[in-house]
User: What shape does this take?
Amino acid sequence: MTFSSMLIVGATSQIASHTAYALVPHCRRFVLAARNSERLALLADDLRHRGAEAVYTLPYDAEQDTDRDLIEEACALLGELPTVVLIAHAVLPRDDQAYRSKQTTREVLQINTSSVLVLCATIASHFEERGYGTVAVISSVAADRARRSNFLYAATKAALDVYLDGLALRWQAQSPALRVLTIKPGFVRTPMTAHLERVPFSVSAERVGRSIARLIIHGSTGRRYIPWWWRPVMLIARCLPRWVMQRIRL
Amino acid sequence: MTKQRLESWTGVVSPSPVETITLQSTEENPFTHTHASLLARGYGSSYGDICLPTGKAVLCTGLNRIRWFNNQTGIICAEAGVRLGDLVAVTISQGWTLPVLPGTEQVSIGGAIASDIHGKSHHWAGTFGRWVRRVGLIRSDGRIECSPTENAELFGATIGGLGLTGIITWAELQLVPCVSPWMECHDVPFSSLDEYVERSAELERSFDYVVAWCDLSRRGVITGIIHASRFFSSPSAKPEPKRKVPLIEHIPRLPFRLLSRPIVWLASRVRHMVQRPQRIAHYRSVMFPLDGLPWNRLFGPGGFYQLHAVLPPAQRLDAIAALCQHLWQARVALPLCVLKNFSALRSPGLLSFPMEGTSIAVDVPNTPRARQVLETIIADIATIGGRIYPAKDVLLNAEQFQRMYPNWRLLEHYRDRRCSSQFWERVTRQQ
Ligand SMILES: Cc1cc2nc3c(=O)[nH]c(=O)nc-3n(C[C@H](O)[C@H](O)[C@H](O)COP(=O)(O)OP(=O)(O)OC[C@H]3O[C@@H](n4cnc5c(N)ncnc54)[C@H](O)[C@@H]3O)c2cc1C
Ligand SMILES: NC(=O)c1ccc[n+]([C@@H]2O[C@H](COP(=O)([O-])OP(=O)(O)OC[C@H]3O[C@@H](n4cnc5c(N)ncnc54)[C@H](OP(=O)(O)O)[C@@H]3O)[C@@H](O)[C@H]2O)c1
Assistant: This one.
């Protein structure tokens, strides 16, 4: 499948940029939104050299730009609503004590959850009106079961999962051309996780990017785990009684 | 920031856990964040300790953007972390390819320059460094650009400079035209070293890419197959094979040595039988044959060494024969042995490995006996004026290295005082 245009929010994230690389042969025009405008410009040039027909950029900060309608802005650049929107930005607090800070909690919640849901709201209104479109959001396997570390991050992602499940149910009833894709990668080696111990079975951002591209091209919907074996792993993890989680030091 | 042990492709680990600084943009300067000594790192595809830092590692794989590409002149400017495989995947559809490609696509532009890599095309293309037009470096005292005409000495030191002259952030490369991603491949068997020399010289006249697989599975017998190929414009091309990207980044090693002598013997017999005189294949399967396999994990818990040497033309036949005799004495499986000829084309690099002669690369399982044998072989190679490839080495001592690379003092002169590697410490240590 090829589609005519796509908006990527948080485009400079490692996973999102690899997704864009993998989508170049399938998508003609890109709008990239991200916070760091310098890296955004470099990525845009890069995609052009890799064969994208047109690449536009929008500066976007998930903490500050709460009132903007990115979809409208992308539409103005493209002359049409994008067919696919991928939302990839997030922060993972580094400090293990982050959950005790009001400031960090507010910030993480704003970037990972509020900004994403606000975007989803505008996407929903635009897409429902037009009758088709795919919204793909990068969540995480972390959201499936709380651990003693990073549960603030997990909680912000869990909210996305529930919201997207609901939106998917609603859209399914409306039209098969309205798609919601919840992407749940396992541990990926990216700048976000550079400070963590090397985890066995970690995968590269490139690999994840390709898988996301494939899911989008095939029009997949629902919660998708990358790599696939995280699905059975998390199924088991969800069933583990609490005392087992207490013993596992993760 | 947690520390972890870094590894080379063969599993040589840093003696202590090290901190890694990840570069995301060529504007960042890692020297300003720390006082430690630094070493740039690409995909860790080298076999030895040239990619292991003494201080901190600077991971460059995030510098993976193509800056510009002129498809009229074939000149491309890309950041140093771009993988060679990715670069070619982009340019080949526009009719251009890199003249020098190694045996794996998992090599960064920075790593390719730092090792001044060579490929199956040495007879006309020489080394990678010959195709580098310009590089951008970060040194502890600031940024600097160099080319064959500007800061030429530093340029020469950086080509094959093992990452010691600073961190390469981008490079401008000259590509060569190519008609399609498809290649016409010929397999030509040989049953002795003399025959190899004769046939390979002949094939190099009409084929752009020539390499030989050498079968050492039978003691006392050296046979093999020369693979010769060139790009080919086929009107009825098959569908492109899918790119193989390993699913898991860190595949654990097998708990036993799969590549045992009987298995290698059997595989070699099969390989002789299935050779096809002529076929059309996609460039990826011709250039990067091992990339689909977790090759480095098949040698079991002990891992393996690769002996990669170049032998001067006059002594090469005797030297290769002697080397094989030694290897057979180690009584280990020798699953991979590759022969290539190096031409007299000179590299601009100070410490470039290739010189005129024949190069031999042999994977040798790590056993105490094999190690002893390798040490003898390396000593012999040093006496006859051959060289060992730093990117594959763990066994050279300072005296041997300095004899093989008399220019090392010049590189030491241009080395950034804040850059060093485990390799450099080992081979420049005062005796
Ligand atoms: C299966 C396989 C086949 C191979 N075949 C060949 C072959 O045919 N011919 C050949 O010549 N080599 C071959 N190699 C070796 C490989 O090309 C070199 O070891 C290469 O240097 C690895 O590049 P890397 O990006 O992985 O760098 P690393 O292994 O991470 O580092 C290698 C060196 O490059 C330096 N370096 C890396 N990035 C930078 C940078 N940005 N700036 C400055 N210095 C940097 C490092 O400091 C280090 O000294 C092969 C390796 C494998 C695994
Ligand atoms: N890495 C993993 O193991 C893993 C696992 C599961 C899910 N994920 C998810 O995958 C997605 C991509 O992450 P990644 O691993 O590719 O890491 P990454 O490269 O660090 O990407 C995170 C991105 O979020 C952006 N961002 C942070 N705060 C922002 C803000 N206020 N406004 C706009 N953008 C902001 C960052 O922008 P800057 O470039 O400007 O900093 C960065 O590009 C995230 O949603 C992450 O939760 C990752």
In short: The helical segments of chain A are 14-23, 37-49, 70-78, 102-130, 151-174, 205-217, 230-239, 242-247. The longest strand of chain A covers residues 27-34. Chain A touches chain B through 28 residues (CB under 8 Å).
